C-alpha cells in the first residue's frame, strides 16, 4: 500500500486552491470538477476545507481512515474533513485553545452530514471509558432527535435543516468530552402550517404516523392516513430512501439514550398530535345581531380530541378562537374574530406551540448533556447554519438568514486576516496590508440601530396607526435610497425607475455574494410573530405537564402589557451573541457545495457550483491567502521532501533543518524574492516555485527509482544464481541417493525371489514325506480297527447267547413258583382278592402318576408358574403339596447360585419395590435396569483421581446430577457421591467438593409421583449441614439413588429410625432463610427434553413433566 507524506503526492488537480496557477474563476471550477470526477470531494484553501456533496456513500469514512488521519499534520495527507477535525481537536487538547468549526453552504450541500462527521471523528479519537462513552453517545444521539423535529424534505434536500444549530462540546484537560450545550437559531416555524409544493412538513409528523403502534395512535387519537391532516402536504408525503417507521424507532431510542423519561416522550408526542389536530379545526362565519362578523368552529370533534390531549376545557379554547381581548392599562376590550382572523389565530397557535416545543427539547437535551463538573472546560464549537439563500421568492426568512451569513463572512475575513498576520509576526516575516472587500457596510445597512433595515422594521411594527408592508417599504425608500447597496423602484434614485426586473413591492440588496431581491409581503406579520393573549392564557390553563413551561406568558398572575420583542430583534441579539462567542475561539471553516439540483451522483452543474463559489466568497478567500505567500512549510518536512535535489543534503543532512533548507535553495538557484525564511517555516511566494521544486523532485525520484531498480535487479540475479547453484548441488545429491536406492531395491528383490523359490522346494519335499508317513499310520489304524471289531462282535454274540439261556431259566422258575403259590393260597384268594386288587391298582396308578410327573416337570426358573394337571381327583391334595415342595426346592437351588454381591442387589431391588411400586410413575421403567452404583468408575477414571483421593470411605454410588438453582430454575451439573456416612456434591469440571452432608443430618427425601427425576434432600433443622439449606436435585437414576439413600441412611442413623421418603406432587424446600414450594404439573415436552423447571415467583418453582402415553 502506498504511503503518502504530503498532499502534493499523486495530486488529482490541485489539492490546495492557494497553489492553483493561473488563478481564475474558470480554473477554480475546472479544478473542482476534475477532483469531483475522481471522487476527491475535499479541497483546501489554506486551512479552509471545501466539501462537495457526492450524493452517494464513499469508502473514505472507515475506522482505518480515522486512524490514518489521527495525529497527522494538516498538509501531510490528501484533503479530508478528518484532517481539519484532527487539527482542531489537537489544538484544543495540546495548546489549550478553544476551537470553533463553522460549516456553511446552501440547503442540500451536506452541512448536517459534515457536522456529524466532525463529531464522530472527535468521538473516535478522544479517550475511552464508561462515563466518557456515555457522554459521547449522548452527544451523538442528540442529532437524530433534533433532525426529526427540526429537519424537513425540501426541493433541494431530503433532509434539510430548517434551523440553525451551534453546539459547544466541552472537554477536560485530557481531551475527554464532559458534555455540551446546544443553541438553536430561527426554526422555520411557518413550515408547520404551510409547505411549498414538492416539500414536506417536519419529519416527526410523518415518522409518528408511520412508525407508532396502533395502540399508541389510538391513545394519541390519530389516524395513520396522511390525507386526514390539513398541515401535511400529500404530493411529497413519501420520500424515496427515507424509512419513516424505522426513523421513528431510532428517534425514540435516541431520546432514551439522551435521558428523556417515558412520560416526557409521551408528553412530546401528545403535543405533536395536538398540532396535527389543530390544523384540522375549521371555522364558519356567523353574523351577530349588531351586524358584526364572527367565527364559529365547524366540526368540534377535532377540537374536542385536541382539548383531551392537552387537558384543557373545550369551551375555553373555543372562545379563544372566537374572541380577542385587548388590555390597555386598566381597560379591557373584547372583540370578535372573523373567519380570516380565526384561521390566523389557529396557525399562530400551531406555529408557537411547535416552536416552543422545539426550544423545550433543546433545553431538555442541554440538561442531559451538560458538563457535571464546574471546573474550567476546553470548548469546541460546531456551527451548522443555513447557507446564503437566493430563491425566486425571497421573504423575511431569507432576509435574516442572509444577514447571518453576512455577519459570518465578516468574521471569516477578519479572523482569516488576523490568523495570517499572527503567523507572519510569529515567524518574523514582514506583514503587508491586503486589500479585500469589507462587507461591514452591508451589515451596517441591515443592523444599524438608527437607520438599519431591521431597526426600521421594528419601528414600523411598534408605531401606532395603520401598519402595512407598503408603509415599511416607503420608509426604506425614504431613508436607504442613497445607500450604494440598496435598490428600490420607488426610491429617490432615478436610475431604478425604469428597471423592470425590480417590482414595485420589492427591494434589492447587493450582498457580498450577489444581489438578492426581497418581496416585502409578510415582513411585518412575520416580524411581529404575535400570539393572542387569550390563546396564551388558554394554553396556560391546560393540565398537560409541559404547557405551563411552554406558555409562561399566559400566566394571569404575571400579565405583561409590554409588547414582546420582535422576531428580528431576537434573531439580531442571538447572532450578536454568536459572533462574540466565535471571536473568542480559533476558527476552522468547512464550505459545503452541492454539485447539482437533481440530488444525483456524478453530475457537476458548473453554473450552480459557480453561483455557490461566488456567494461563499471562495475566490476572495484564495486571494487573501495568496496576497502574501502562497505556501509555507516547516523546515524539517521541507528538507525531508526535497533533500534529494542537492548532493550536500542527500541522503542525510547532519546539521539543523533550516541550514539544510538554505543550502538546498542556494544549490537550486531559486531567486531570493520568491521565498523568505521564518523562524520555523520557509515561505514560498509563488506557486510556480513550488511546482518547479515538485517537478525537479519527480525527475529526481525517477532517477533514484532507476538506480534502486538497477541495484535490486543485480542483487536479485546474483541471489537467483546462487540459489540455482545451491539447488543443483542438492538435486545432484538427491539424485545419486535415489539411483543407489533403486539399485539396492532391485538386488534385494532378486534375492528375495531366489530365497522364496528355495524355501518353496524344501517345503514341498517335506510335505510329501509327511503325507506318506500319515498314510502309513492311517492304514495300520484301519486294519487294527477292523480286527478289533471282529473280535468284539464275536464276544457279543457269545454274551447274548448266555443271557438268553439265563432268562429262559428265570422264566421257567418264575412260572413254577407262581404255580406253587397259586396252589398254596388258592383257598385264601376269594377272601382277600378285592383288597389286594385295589391296593395293586392304586400302586400302579401312583407309579404311573409319579413317572408321568417326572417327565412333565416345569423349568427350574422360580418365576415359572406352570404345573402339570392332576390326572385324578383323589390326588388333589398330594398334587398341591408336591407343587409347593417342588417350588421351594427349586428356589433353594436358585438361591444357592447367588454371590453376596448379587444377593445385595436383589435386596435393593426388593426395597425399591416396597418404596415405589404403585407410588411413582418412574418405577416400572427402572425394574429391568440393574443397579450399577458407580456409574463414573471413579476409582479407575484418572479425571476423578483428585476427587477419589478426597473420599476416605468406599463410594457406594457415583453419578452426575443437576443441582437446581432457585433463582431461575436452571440446573448446574454436579457429581453425587454416596458413602456409608456422607452424601457429597462436587463440581463436575474441577472435582472440587462443594457440599458434604452427614447421613444422620438427613431428615427426609421428597419426590413426586410423576415420571421425572427431581428429588429434594431435606436436612434436619439445627444441624451443621443445614446452614445453606436443602438441596433440590435431578438425576437419571432416581430410583436407585433414593433406594440406596434409604437403605444406608437407616443403617447410619444412631436411633435406628428409617429415613422418611415423601412421595407427593407439591412439597416445600428450605433455601437458606426462605421456603420455596416445588410444584409438579403435567405439560408438553419443550425442545424434545424431559421435565423442565421454571421459576414462577420468589416462592414457587414449577416443574413441567411430559405426560406419559
From TrEMBL:
Gene3D superfamilies: 1.10.10.820, 1.20.5.190, 1.20.58.530, 6.20.240.20, Kinesin motor domain, Myosin VI head, motor domain, U50 subdomain. GO terms for molecular function: actin filament binding; ATP binding; calmodulin binding; microfilament motor activity. Residues 575-597 are annotated as: Actin-binding. ATP binds at residues 105-112. Residues 12-698 form the Myosin motor domain. Residues 920-1107 form the TH1 domain. It is found in: Cytoplasm, Cell cortex. The keyword DNA repair does not apply. SUPFAM superfamilies: P-loop containing nucleoside triphosphate hydrolases. GO terms for cellular component: brush border; cell cortex; microvillus; myosin complex; plasma membrane. Signal peptide: none annotated. Keywords: Actin-binding, ATP-binding, Calmodulin-binding, Isopeptide bond, Motor protein, Myosin, Nucleotide-binding, Phosphoprotein, Repeat, Ubl conjugation. One of its GO terms (biological process) is actin filament-based movement. InterPro entries: IQ_motif_EF-hand-BS, Kinesin_motor_dom_sf, Myosin_head_motor_dom-like, Myosin_TH1, MYSc_Myo1, P-loop_NTPase. Belongs to the TRAFAC class myosin-kinesin ATPase superfamily. Myosin family. Motor protein that may participate in process critical to neuronal development and function such as cell migration, neurite outgrowth and vesicular transport. PANTHER family: MYOSIN (PTHR13140), UNCONVENTIONAL MYOSIN-IB ISOFORM X1 (PTHR13140:SF802). This is Unconventional myosin-Ib.
